[in-house]
Write a structure and sequence with these properties.
Blueprint lengths: L5 H37 L15 H14 L1 H33 L1 H14 L8 H8 L4 H10 L1 H13 L3 H9 L4 H39 L4 H10 L3 H29 L5
Helix pairs in contact: 2-11, 3-4, 3-6, 3-7, 3-9, 5-6, 6-9, 7-9, 8-9, 9-10, 9-11, 10-11
Length: about 270
């Protein structure tokens, strides 16, 4: 018979306890979701024709979603939207993280740009669409630029906050040991600011998909937003809701991806 050492028994119990805790947490989180889906399924069926078609049952929406996938409609629209999000998100992240680090590190740069940012911050990203349509026309570049603009506030401001939150004692110690300013910035400031930076990226992950859908509805004839507008003209509520579910799933995937990256990159801190 296998004999367990006390330490092995302790670790085994700890692992099972952690797994049980995670299952309970996910279980409680699923309860309101399942309740909502059940309510969504039953309410349209017992409404006696009132508002018929305005809210199809959940099962019908899922059937239509599978049909969109099998027919290739979703396979054509989703990759277009995904590429636009990735391009705008990547460009915005590189620009605003870099500028945020610079503003947080150099107080004079922050004082210089603060009035300019104060002017443009209240303007919503979608508000630029009419002007961008005149400048760029109906093109692939338009939604990418809108997402780029949308990433301004969450990424820039959280990066600045992260850089400025670094304990000055760390910087003083690094300088006393002869570290250069570049070394301090790249090896001390930026790593310690990563939790703030990832917070901004996670916020932008959801905002990017919302802004993209709005831009595609207004100015681009392809993508999920355009598909929703075509469904609206045909009064196909099931297609519209299926597209909304896809947008929600993609936003969740992006947010969870950055949460996982944050955990992997900062795992040694905890």
């Amino acid at each position: 018979m296998t004999s367990w050492l006390p330490e092995e028994r302790y670790h085994l119990r700890a692992n099972w306890s952690a797994r049980l805790h995670n299952l309970r947490r996910w279980g409680w989180g699923l309860i309101p979701i399942l309740a909502l889906l059940a309510l969504w399924e039953e309410v349209p069926r017992v409404s006696d024709g009132a508002g018929e078609g305005l809210l199809p049952p959940f099962s019908e929406v899922m059937v239509q979603g599978v049909h969109l996938l099998r027919s290739g409609v979703l396979a054509d629209s989703l990759p277009r939207s995904l590429l636009r999000v990735l391009a705008g998100f990547a460009a915005g992240a590189v620009t605003w993280i870099g500028l945020g680090v610079l503003i947080g590190w150099q107080e004079k740069v922050g004082k210089t740009f603060r009035p300019l940012f104060g002017i443009f911050y209240p303007v919503p990203a979608v508000g630029w669409v009419p002007l961008l349509m005149l400048w760029l026309g109906i093109s692939e570049l338009l939604p990418i630029v809108v997402i780029y603009i949308c990433s301004f506030f969450p990424v820039l401001y959280t990066t600045v906050a992260g850089v400025r939150s670094v304990d000055k004692e760390y910087i003083r110690v690094a300088r006393s040991l002869g570290a250069s300013e570049r070394y301090i910035l790249l090896k001390v400031i930026v790593p310690l600011a990563l939790p703030y930076i990832f917070t901004g990226l996670r916020l932008e992950a959801g905002m990017a998909w919302r802004v993209l859908a709005a831009a595609e509805m207004i100015a681009v004839p392809t993508g999920l937003g355009a598909l929703m507008m075509r469904a609206q003209s045909l009064i196909r509520m099931d297609i519209i809701i299926a597209c909304l579910i896809v947008l929600a799933i993609m936003s969740l995937v992006f947010e969870k991806t950055f949460a996982l990256l944050e955990k992997r990159l900062t795992i040694d801190w905890y």
